[in-house]
């Protein structure tokens, strides 16, 4: 036994690492360290989905109509994706609900909304928007923004969004 440092004897055959700034001392057996290194998986940071964020509806393209419907400027139609929840404005009412993603497949809903009355044209636009969101099938995100491809009983089409931080249309 080492008379000078009696506490050092239990650490014989171990690698001692001092992490400066963290004030931590770690003793690792060389055998455990080697087998741990061989089995170690690369560290991966949790990544959010590319759909996460705040989006403003730029237009709706419905089949077979080639001309996109541009929503009325006031009030704007929005969608905010956070975690597994979506919320936003349908133009008159606030809505909220859940969503799931598997690859590029997207499922939204069911959606719930507040219940206030607005002009008939805004209410029709809102109903179409919420129905399209609930009919989501898949999505794409690129440097232009977010596209949600949907299918309802009446029609199919694409909801095109820009980031709320970006003004303008496609």
Task: Describe what you observe in this structure.
Strand 1 and strand 2 (24-28) form a beta hairpin. With 170 residues, this protein is mainly beta. Mean pLDDT is 77; it is low at 16-47. 15% of the residues lie in helices and 41% in strands. It starts with 14 loop residues before the first strand and ends in a 7-residue tail after the last strand. It is built from two helices and ten strands; from the N terminus they run ββαβββββαβββ. The longest helix has 15 residues, at 120-134. The chain has an eight-stranded antiparallel beta sheet with strand order 7-6-5-4-3-10-9-8. The protein has two domains: 6-39, no CATH class; 53-163, Lipocalin, CATH 2.40.128. The chain has helices at 30-39, 120-134, and strands at residues 15-19, 24-28, 53-62, 78-82, 85-89, 94-102, 105-113, 136-142, 145-151, 156-163.
The whole-number mean of residue pLDDT values reads: 77
From N to C, what is the helix and strand string? EEHEEEEEHEEE
Global morphology: globular
- Classified by CATH, the class of the largest domain is Mainly Beta
Radius of gyration: 27 Å
Helix- and strand-based class? Answer: mainly beta
Helix content: 10-25%
Total strands: the figure is: 10
What is CATH's topology name of the largest domain?
Lipocalin
CATH architecture of the largest domain: Beta Barrel
Q: What is the first-to-last residue Cα distance?
A: 77 Å
Major sheet attributes: 8 strands, antiparallel
Catalogue the unreliable spans: 16-47
- Strand order, sheet with most strands: 7-6-5-4-3-10-9-8
How much strand? Answer: 35-45%
Number of helices: 2
Number of domains: 2
């Amino acid at each position: 036994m080492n008379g000078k440092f009696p506490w050092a004897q239990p650490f014989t055959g171990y690698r001692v690492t001092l992490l400066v700034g963290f004030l931590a001392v770690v003793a690792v057996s060389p055998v455990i360290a080697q087998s741990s290194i061989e089995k170690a998986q690369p560290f991966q940071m949790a990544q959010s989905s590319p759909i996460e964020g705040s989006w403003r509806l730029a237009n709706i393209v419905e089949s077979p109509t080639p001309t996109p419907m541009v929503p009325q400027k006031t009030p704007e139609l929005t969608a905010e994706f956070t975690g597994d929840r979506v919320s936003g404005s349908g133009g008159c009412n606030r809505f909220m609900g859940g969503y799931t993603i598997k690859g590029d497949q997207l499922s939204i809903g069911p959606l719930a909304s507040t219940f206030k009355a607005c002009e008939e044209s805004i209410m029709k636009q809102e109903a179409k928007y919420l129905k399209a969101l609930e009919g989501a099938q898949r999505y794409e995100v690129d440097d232009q923004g977010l596209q949600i491809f949907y299918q309802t009983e009446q029609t199919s089409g694409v909801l095109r969004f820009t980031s709320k931080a970006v003004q303008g249309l496609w």
